[in-house]
Amino acid sequence: MSLSDEELERYARHIVLPQVGGVGQRKLKAAKIAVIGAGGIGSAVIPALAAAGVGKLTIIDNDVVELPNLHRQPLYAEKDVGRSKAELAAEFVRHLNHFVEVQPVHERIASDNAPDLLAGHDLVIDGSDNFATRLAVSDSCVRFNAPLLSAAAVQFQGQVGLFKARPCYRCFVGDAFDADDCDNCAELGVLGALTATVGGYSALIAINSLVGIGEDLFGKLHLFQGDSLSWRAIRIPPDPACKACGSA
Ligand SMILES: [Zn+2]
Q1: Which ranges in the chain belong to alpha helices (H)?
Q2: Cys-Cys with 161: which of 14, 54, 71, 221 at CB 3.0–4.6 Å?
Q3: Cα of 246 to ligand 1 centre, how many Å?
Q4: Phi (first) and psi of residue 46, to 5 degrees
Q5: How close is the Cα of 205 to the center of ligand 1, in Å?
Q6: Distance (Å, rounded) from C-alpha 222 to C-alpha 232?
Q7: Buried (b) or exposed (e) across 95-106, using 16+ Cβ within 10 A?
Q8: How high is the pLDDT of residue 129?
Q9: 248 band by pLDDT with thresholds 50, 70 and 90
Q10: Whole-number Å distance between alpha carbons of 159 and 225
Q11: What distance in angstroms lies between residue 168's CA and the mean position of ligand 1's atoms?
Q12: Tens digits of per-residue pLDDT, 57-78?
């Protein structure tokens, strides 16, 4: 996959980095990423990936913009209230970078349609707001052997984990939340700048993983505490009894 003169100029500050170079930039162009949830985390992840030159983006979200979204979702403006987030986010991407092929999907993803919606993607980024969706997405990714970057933010706490095959996200969460459909943000609150921080960090992990920067990226959960401003990482052990990736 080659880069045009315009792309070489556009991505010059990437290409000059020894860790990225032309090879890394072409890997980004070749990548097809699904982003689930065009909310607070999506508002940071989607622009970062589109600006970085990821070749294909699928944006999956069945919500419309509501007024209480605007404090953490700068993809949208006041005039957008009532409109589809997936469509608006795709419009944003087209304006930002015409080299990106973007596909909006205004659908709720669940265990029945996840395999169809996620097949063929090199990376799935899940910034949705409930455990039932997250677990359905994770199970599909395990089935396809697709890498999953799962990101969440609530109150002042953020977490981001990159999983592939085993351990999976279900090893970390367990099975208790399959029926949990609550909107954490509505019930518990979330600081707007926290979702931007967690989303930006997620985009960085995604790009590192696609380009091949750093090592030991999988199976680790990065935890951010927004009031004390500290990051730490823990390793997720594989659950032998995991119903998605376990051997049982
Ligand atoms: Zn598992």
Answers
A1: 5-10, 12-15, 21-30, 40-52, 85-96, 114-118, 131-144, 169-173, 184-188, 192-211
A2: 221
A3: 6
A4: -65, -50
A5: 21
A6: 6
A7: eebebbebebbb
A8: 84
A9: low
A10: 9
A11: 4
A12: 999 999 999 999 999 999 999 9
